[in-house]
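Hi all, long-time lurker, first post. I run a small reading group and we've been trying to get comfortable going from sequence to structure in the token notation. Rather than ask abstract questions, I figured I'd post a concrete chain and ask someone more experienced to write out its structure so we can walk through it together at our next meeting. Sequence below, copied exactly:
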Amino acid sequence: MSSTDFNSGTFNDTINDMAPEPTAARRIVVLISGSGSNLQALIDAQSHDRLGGEIVAVISNEPDAYGLKRALEAGIEAVALPHREYDSRDAYDGALIKVIERHEPDLIVLAGFMRILTPRFVQRFLGKMLNIHPSLLPAYQGLNTHARALADGVKQHGCSVHFVTEELDGGPAVLQAELNVTNEDTVETLKEKVHAREHLIFPIAVQWFLQGRLQYSAENATMDGHPLPPHGMRLSHTDAAEELDEEFDENT
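-- Answer (accepted) --
Happy to help. Here is the structure in token form:
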């Protein structure tokens, strides 16, 4: 396998090879704001021993987030920390830091956490945070990625896992999954297809980090000690469709 691409023949092997088991379960804290579909993908991977660690807490800035229910149903501590109860972003992030540190995580996963983090927060956990974003970064940082992609008439779209830095959606990319955009696609169809790819690649990136294979540096992410390119590793449209058992047309 190259440093930039997957192929279907080596995809599953890459996940599992050269991966010594840790002597104790690595600890994960997940931050959410909404329904928690990516959280569920992580919970499912954990239940099949494919995550490389244990989700010890789920924290939401929205007390009614459905993801908190998902956590409780999985026997995971669910914490509501409403941001509206704090006078400033810095005050909220200070409280969030305390809650997170109580759980002593090895990794913090942002799974649809709709908050812009303060520099204080980012620096406290720099190199220990992964985020999932619905575009092929560095394209379409920020919100409304699917509508913007359609408006630009792009032929490829997708999602990215990246390390979190002070730049919004600007940290080193780790892993991406492509999809081909068709003339029939809408915001809703792209959202559905991208979600499926997020659920595919997010647990893999988490596992790689917890196994010590994936690491952060200021310039880029590294995999097994080798620097990754700006877009990280990339799963093609064809390979992603095969992994997801999607019907696809290579000419779309």
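A couple of things your group might point at:
The longest helix spans residues 187-210.
The chain has a mean pLDDT of 91.
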